[in-house]
Amino acid sequence: MTLDQNWFTERCKEAGSAFSLQIKRKLHDEQTPFQHIEIYETEKFGNLMTIDGFVMLTTRDNFVYHEMMSHPVLYSHPRPRRVVIIGGGDCGTLREVLKHPEVESVVQVDIDERVTRLSEQYFPELCESNADPRAELRFGDGIQWVKDAEPGSVDVIIVDSTDPIGPAEGLFSGPFYKDCLRVLGSDGLLGQQSESPLYHTQSIIRPMHDEMRKAGFLDTLTLHFPQASYPSGWWTATIAAKDMPVTFLREEACENKPFATQYYNDAIHRACAATPEFLRRALLD
Ligand code: SAM
What we know:
By secondary structure, the chain is of the alpha/beta class. The chain has 2 domains: 57 residues, Spermidine Synthase, Chain: A, domain 2; 223 residues, Rossmann fold, CATH 3.40.50.150. Helices cover 30% and strands 32% of the residues. It has 9 helices and 13 strands. The strands form 2 sheets. Strands 9-8-7-10-11-13-12 form a 7-stranded mixed beta sheet, with helices on both faces. The longest helix is centred in the C-terminal third of the chain and has 19 residues. The protein binds S-adenosylmethionine. S-adenosylmethionine binds next to strand 6, strand 7, strand 8 and helix 4.
């Protein structure tokens, strides 16, 4: 990350590219026991949160990411009642999950309470459902939480984590996926942010499919969507299904969803699952 004449720049070294936002001022700077969190006010993207110099979210475009991390996987499960979010401390995914009336409980496990406290302060709109009686906010290591959870006790696990470095590294590994499989009940689904299709197909997406299948998941599928403030402007979520085809969709419920969204709808659900040719080939090889 560099700050040059009021421009925040995130460099993506492996792709030889960078993304910049014009900054009005820095609002907060804090080194927690886990990571370095910064909050900026930008000229055109609202507030910006970075962790260790990487963009986590902006006010302007986080809606795409949070909707795509939650609604596709929830409408792909026949009856999602018990949901767990690993990471997600900004609470944007939690807010979307709680829009589903059939969801009875959501446990969110983020390793760093400061992310949530700062989100409450600088992204209050994302935290507006935190007091919902169905939500439980826990602070601790998501890897350990899944290890300790009862077999078959969860319908949907959503991994909304930082990149696979530091505390999030183990969330992209075979042992973690094995624990997720054990904790999921029948029809269980795991949805995970899986980085850029343009930059990370070989380094992250393909290994993720391999590890999920090796762990015992029956089917896997990568969804893609635009995300202006992330490297390449194009992002993915990968869904792994315990024991059914991952392309299942509760069509009628999805077409008549009882809540508003800004990006997701039933047509987007079908469209985001259409695999581009380079990705299809990479996943077959
Ligand atoms: N949308 C973001 C992205 O893709 O860049 C991710 C946002 S969310 C803020 C990521 C969260 O993952 C952070 O709050 C971080 O504390 C959390 N996290 C990282 N490793 C974790 C772990 N092992 N257990 C639980 N939470 C973790």
